[in-house]
Amino acid sequence: xxxxxxxxxxxxxxxxxxxxxxxxxxxxxxxxxxxxxxxxxxxxxxxxxxxxxxxxxxxxxxxxxxxxxxxxxxxxxxxx
Length: 80
Description:
The structure is a single chain. By secondary structure, the protein is mostly helical. It has four helices and no strands. The longest helix has 16 residues, at 33-48. Helices cover 59% and strands 0% of the residues. It folds into two domains: 1-31, no CATH class; 33-80, no CATH class.
């Protein structure tokens, strides 16, 4: 299974220029910083309410409960 996935990724990398460019940028820039911060906040929200969740459309409001430290210098999101 892992071998098939590795082959698929390699085939995309070699044959699809947009994929090639995106992966090269991720390696060069050391990844997307903001995405992991958003995922961590989402995980904390999930842990607070794993059964019923927080409600549709509530992420933007509740995100402020779990400030990530810094989010690309955005005002209001970096203060702890």
